[in-house]
Design a protein that fits this description.
The complex is a heterodimer. By secondary structure, chain A is of the alpha+beta class. Chain A has 13 helices and 23 strands. Chain B has nine helices and 28 strands. The chains are: A alpha+beta, B alpha/beta.
Amino acid sequence: MFDTDILIVGAGITGTSLARELSRYNADVIVVDRGADLAEGATKANSGIVHAGYDAVPGTLKARFNVQGASLFPDLCRALSVPYRKCGALVIGFDGKDLETLEALLQRGIRNGVKNLRLLTREEALALEPSLNPDISGALDVPESAIVSPYELAYALADDAALNGVSFRFNRTVSAVEKTEGGWVVRTEEGETVTCRTFVNCSGASGAALHNSISDLPLQMTHRRGQYYLLDRAPVLPFSRTVFQCPSVMGKGVLVSPTVHGNLLLGPNAEDISDPLDTATTAAGLSEVLEKARRTWPTLSVRTNITNFSGIRAHLLTDDFVVGPVSGAAGAFEAIGIESPGLSSAPAIGLYLSAMIAESLALTKKQDLIPLPLRPVPFHEMTDGQRTAAVRENPEYGNIVCRCECVTEAEVRQAIRRPVGARTIDGVKRRTRAGMGRCQGGFCSPRVAQILSEETGVPLPDITKDGGNSYLLSGSLASFLKGESGNE
Amino acid sequence: MNDRHVDLLIVGAGPAGLAAAISAREAGIESILVLEREQEPGGILRQCIHNGFGLHRFREELTGPEYARRDIDRVRELGIPVECSTTVLSVSRDRVVTCVSAKNGFRRIEAGAVVLAMGCRERPRGALCTPGTRCAGIYSAGTAQRFVNLEGFMPGKRVIILGSGDIGLIMARRMTLQGAKVLACVEIMPYSSGLNRNIVQCLEDYGIPLYLQHTVTDIRGRERVTGITIARVDQNRLPVAGTEIDFDCDTLLLSCGLIPENELSLGAGVELSRLTSGPVVAENLETSVPGIFACGNVLHVHDLVDHVSAESFNAGRAAAEFIRNPSGAASRFAVRDGNGVRGTVPQAVSARPREDVQLMFRPSDVFRNAAAVVECGGREILRKKAMIYTPGEMAVLTLRKDLFENLQGDVITVRIEGEKANG
């Protein structure tokens, strides 16, 4: 007997996409993750772009899953109440050589099946985006390019999966995976052992290490860090589309893009680093982002910067995704090297892998799926009439917790009570936007911590920013003066 | 969504909002409503349990809550309604205010005049673009102050403070008194932005080193802060390689400046100054939108609450006058910053001010043996000497109203004459 039919390692965008698809079958599914919450790796720290698919080399898995995945987004995001907007994109060039690149991207896009691509003259591009550098030589117009909130998509996918029976377990770092008769044993650093019939590696930055521990075909991965600036919302942003520069061997380059929440994102740079968990920002990296972003937007000012962050791309030397059965490891599957366009590809990868796993385990489809309830309109987006009704029905809508993003107590409590609910300050922040604004939680974090404590029964000093040892408070004043140790 | 009308609506029941309410009532306005998002009135004074408030206004040293209490009591005495736990969501150009509370739901209120008194917020790490990890243990000084003084919890044990603003200095002493070790206060400028008395009483008295012309260049720690690196900065405020100092610590407090909180003002179409980040106002504290007034830290960041109260009494009186007679006097003089002066408030003065006019500004540098000079129409109209003018202390110049009786010219210029101190 096995503890579960399927164990997925990694609760990022790929793991949650797969988990949701597998929840449509009659099978026990467990997802484990090293983080304290969903989406703690690259999923929470990327550009949030649903790429149209002009960039991937035809014939690669990147091209195939990107184009297929991007086409699934509109319906998926509507069904899951996830913010998604087809804002379009421009790829800009600065000289004659760049114009050749743009022409090549156009042809590549057409071969990949991307719709509505066209080349623009300098004047046409500047008319569309007046804040662009007037020194551009031309641009590729990509109307099908879209933006999405990547972590909110992962949360919704996981909620849907959990409603339909998938179990999510956090704070578990896989230490070993071993083949047994007809299945696998997965051990964690925390001393837990789980047996499963099928093991799936969706572990992002750890993907190659885990792969190499079970496969006869070793893979080489580099960890490519990208740093970002996130600027404050404004009634009118200087750009309404995502603006890319011409891609290079290191990736799609530094972009300037609106986000679905009305902020402006600048980044990422690309630097290969040795520690796959090192998401620090650096002075050099941040100034590189600024310098490159200024090529797109010469009058750029970081006066309204809200925060900087960085994410790690899991880049395989083969420069393509690896998706499918693990070579030399029967009953194991994987989706690794899921760097850009990984977010755009995730829904397609989930479908593809789930079908493959269902076939290998001869799974049958469930008859009675529980639909994920539509998420209430955020208070911040409600009309006056909706606000009146909301507070009348639930007075907690009348208590504004986060003044910058206008998030109410009702919404914070809902975020904690979701099927895979928030347990940390950051978990509340990413689910509700409380603390996501210009004061960066200065006013609301004490209140959010208190609500988390009330909802979960965890004492206030044990509430963390993001799990592990990320405690907010060292202890009460009384315990401090008595010299008790408190949090260390 | 019951519409109602009040003569005067005041956004915020901190020291500014309370003072405006008191003076408007004393000027005869009956229908006043004060809305406050916190559960109690008093604003940020509630968490400022140290003393030193009220020296100018009351000639005695009060704690923050004591200072607030006097205005709260007066507001109660006058029977002015203050609705707490109520967040204002919008203010329109024609003075329609929407707000929400658990008790009274979502409401729309029409006001004859509006006083904006929302205060300010602290500059967060993002505004500084400080590199490093994004772990727990990084707080603005005011958030830490709230945790310690209102919630009864200590945010950390070994502390570095970046910025030498007053709240940071106060928190250096507060954390020390509560048993934490404050390792250093780090200031990027060659001078502190806090009051001199706080440098002495909060750092020097406790042996806490102040590193001027230094900044934080790295934050370490995956989950909680484990270490901070600071380095000296050059003339351009860029870190100098080789001057790094590492500290083992678990907490970083930021006291790097305050930003007037003007999102509601922007929504109302109020013009803001890039220098003060607050509304552009005339001497009666009226903004560019008729009938909307601003006072206190939402207008410009003060160091002393006494000045906030004085300014806000003025705003309350002016709002009362507007309610009685909405066709006010047009501005006649523009107020400009001259050499050594930054962000003078008000930015305009009418031909015949009803009261003495207070010009407030921050010196742009440290000046010793200097004089603040006000000129209009090529003529010097005021000169105020001081041993020192420093950006850490707001300068206040009073132009008597009779001065305006025969003033020529259209521009009032404020400048500082004197030696620029080098650090």
